[in-house]
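HOLO CASE FILE
Compound: S-adenosylmethionine
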Amino acid sequence: MWQLDPHTKAKHDLLKSYLGGWFPVLSSYNGRIVFLDGFAGPGRYQSGEPGSPLIALDTLLSHSYFDKMKCEFLFFFCESKKDRFESLTQQIEGYKEANQPWPKNVKVQLVNSEFSETATNLIDHLRNQKRRLAPTFAFVDPFGFSGLPMSILAELLSFDSCELFVNYMVDHVNRFATAGNVDHHLVDLFGTNEYKQVGSLPPGVSRQQFLHDLYERQLTGVCNFPYVQSFAMINKTGHIGYYLFHGTRGIKGVELMKEAMWKVDPGGGFKFSDRLAGQDVLFTDSAVDTDPLRRALLAQYSGRRVSITTLEQFTLIHTPYKKTHLRKPVLTPLERAGVIQVQRPGRSGFPDGTWITFP
Ligand SMILES: C[S@@+](CC[C@H](N)C(=O)[O-])C[C@H]1O[C@@H](n2cnc3c(N)ncnc32)[C@H](O)[C@@H]1O
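Model generated. Tokens follow.
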């Protein structure tokens, strides 16, 4: 067991917030849904704080709509280290005992093996049965970058409603990318050897950004996730520790993750951040700086007339911002300053049916 850092706590808060929205949505139109924790850990941290498996279980069981969610929930926890696996098993047993009678529609399966092996067995089993994985939220949270091959993620999560939330340890990747001694892990991680170009980037191109963009491209291209968002975890010294990547095939998932990201404040000097229009965007709900969004919209739609719906979609899918950051913080000041022309169905605001002309 190890100590819970503020940034790990923030990651857990994110997971909790996201699953709090994902469980009711997915359970309303599926007979079965799966939460898969590929790198589950020992179950608790040093001072007793719950690890990701207990957080996922408890988000469901303590959900205010839990009684109304009639589908079957399968929790699949995979941990390769024997002592951590035993600790996790004990913690899960303890949690079950404390929550008797245990709901019949909640199943927990623990596996003491490597994620890639477990995933391969699952893929083979499903293939033999000519079945596909039920809608799955896969949480992949390794210490480094080995053991999470892109090809396995792609095959396992090929079904439309599957999603991926992965902790991409870019700092480690950056350190080893040109070392030459762990290339097989890196080729697995990316599903390509293009990462080697990191050694010969033109001046001014950041290695971390290059490695970020490559991973994003592979999640889109190889795993076939049309919507991939990422958030950097910035530590106290302003250094990027890791990126959290979320891949989904539904807009609802993008919206849920955005809500979670803007809600969770890591505190302790840590920050979530992303980049847009050449500027850093910090995820903090107080005094949100929407200037990067304003600049991105002006650049994207220069000389065009577009609907409010188009602007909302762009904001949600192609920027780190939420829909609520669009109207009052950005469009209203642009209209007041006479920068944009607005044609609206009513007298005020930006309701559906509004058209905006950009300079
Ligand atoms: C960062 S910790 C996970 C923490 C946990 N997700 C949480 O939030 O509480 C990573 C865990 O993955 C385990 N692990 C390392 N390599 C693995 C692999 N190839 N397959 C499964 N588990 C692995 C480690 O033993 C460790 O417990």
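CASE NOTES: The pocket of S-adenosylmethionine is lined by residues 39-41, 51-52, 78-81, 84, 114-115, 141-143, 147 (CB under 6 Å). DSSP finds twelve helices and twelve strands in the chain.
CLOSED: yes
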